[in-house]
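# step 3/5: fold
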Amino acid sequence: MIAENQLYISSYTTISQNVKYGFLMSIAIFFASLAFVFNTPQEIIAGQITILTSPANLTTDYFALSNVGATLFNSGLLTAQAIVLVRMTRAKVNGPIIAAVFTVAAFSFFGKNLYNSMPIIIGAFTYARITEVPAEKSLLAALFGTALGPLVSEITFNMGLQLPEGILYGYIAGFIAGFIIPPLAKHFVDFTKGFSLYNIGFTSGVVGTIFTSVLRSMGKEIEPVSMLSSGNNQAFTIIFLTLFTLMLITGLYLNSGTLNGYSELMMHSGQLSTDFIKTNGFSITLINMAFLGYISVFYILFHGGEINGPAIGGILTVVGFGAFGKHLKNVLPILIGVSLMGFINDYDMSATGVIIAGLFGTTIAPIAGRYGTLIGILAGALHLTVVSNTGYLHGGINLYNNGFAGGFVAAMMIPLLEAIQYQQEKRRQLREPVDPAEAVKVEN
C-alpha cells in the first residue's frame, strides 16, 4: 500500500510529498536569503513598506519602485505564504500547484504583495465555504487569482480616498473579485478549450475589465503604467543560471543521471490539464523546468532585453508551467512567432513589453503542441499583436495581461483549426480503399 504522503507514478520513481514541499520551500528561502546580498535589513524593510503602500498596476517593477533586496524578500515571503496555503488545504504538490506557486513568486517582482493579495485569497476560500466544497478546490483560484492584486492597491492608494476608506473599499473589491473567480474560471476554460494555460489569467482579465469599467464610469482614471529598472543583467544571469543548473542536477540525480523519459514528456500537447508530474514523474519534470529556465534567460539576452522585475516574472512563470503544460517543443514555436512578428513590424525587441509578450505568450504553447510548429509560430505572431491592445481594457489591474490576450487568441484559432482538421480527416477517410472482406462483414 502506498503511503498517503507519496505520489506513485506507474514505473517512475516514487518521490515523497515532503521532498516536493521541500523543493518549493527552497525557492522561497533562496529568494528571501538572496535579498540580503543586495541590500541591508533597514533598506529591505523600507522597501517593503513602499511596496505594500503603492499602486501596483502593470507594469510596476518593484526593483524600480523600491530596491532589489526588498523585491526579492517580497517574492520569498509570498512564495512561503502560498506554500502555507497549500499545506493548510492538505493539497498534494502536483503540476498545477507548482505552476501556481512559481507564478506567485514570479509576480511578486511586479505587482503582488501581502497587502493586495489577501482579500482575493479570502474571497476564493469563502466561495468554497459557502458552496460547501473542499478548500482545495478553490486553492488554484486563490493563488492564481491574486493577479487582481493591483485592483486592491489602486482603490486603496490611488483614488484620493482617506486611508481607512481606501482600505475598506479596496478589500471589499478584492474580496468580491476573489469570490467570483472560481466559478467563472471553471466556465471560461470551455472558451479556450484548454489551449491557453493561463485560464485564470483570462478570467481575471474579464473581471478586471468589469471593475475598471465601473470605476471609469465614476470618473476615476485607471491606466497602465511603465516603471522599469535596468542594469541587473549580469547579476541575475548568474543567479538564474545557477538556480536552473541546481534544478537540472537534482532532476538528473533523481532520474539516475539520464534524460530517459524526456522525449515522452514532449509528446504531450500540454493542453489543460496536463500534469507532467502525474504523467512523467517529478525528476523529468524538474529537468524540463530547468531547460525552460535556460531558454527563457537566453531569450531575453538574445534580444538585448533587461532582466528586470517583469522579465524575471516571465522567466519564473515559464519555469513553473514546465510542470503543467509547457516544454521545449511547444514553447519554442511561440517564442519564434513573437520574435518574427516583432521584427516584421519593426518592434523594439529589447523593450520589456515585447520581451514579456514572448515569455508570457507561451500560455498558448498547447496550440503548437497539438497543431505543430508552423501553427505555433503563427499563434505566437498573432499573440504579440493582440496583447499590445488588451492592457487598456483592464487598466493594468490584471497582472496576467498575456493570459487575457492568449485566451482570445486560442478562442479564435482553435475552432478554425478544428474545422480544418475535421475536413482533412473526412477527406482522408474518403480516399482510403475499402477492404472487401470488411465490406462483406458489414453487409452480413
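# step 4/5: annotate
The mean pLDDT is 93.
# step 5/5: archive (pending)
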